[in-house]
Model the fold of this input.
Amino acid sequence: MLFSEEKYRFMYAALQEAEKAFEDDEVPVGAVIVHKNRIIGRGYNQIEKLKDATAHAEMIAITAASNNLGNWRLNQCQMYVTLEPCIMCAGALLSSRISELYFATNDMKFGACGSIYNLVEDSKTNHKLKVYTGILGKESEDLLKSFFHRKRLVKKKENQDIKS
Done:
């Protein structure tokens, strides 16, 4: 599926947020929230930094957008995120009434927007959002692979040092 240039621009902004997480040695996931073609919330994973399991990119972006608008209802907003949201974040998307979700790549371990679960389009909830995927998917995947490759190398080196 082809997307408009502005959709790529917003996903690129989310990818830049993911790069901040990568630099901070966090799982590189980034998110932005857009309202009327303007970014009103940004976030990147800060779980380790904040020692908070809820400090996912999506949660931070939702808080920033809500503060920006002065309202918890983000029903005229779209989220762009580099990795498919987990169950917690999918619930937050539903609760905040986000209208559209764009994510770069699937999460086959924790994905809750189509991969493992599909909470955001479930007919049992009172809110649904439109979901689109694939924008800058390779770039997001490459960043994640690079991060986990680096983690494995560090772990391998630590194990070798212990044995020495």
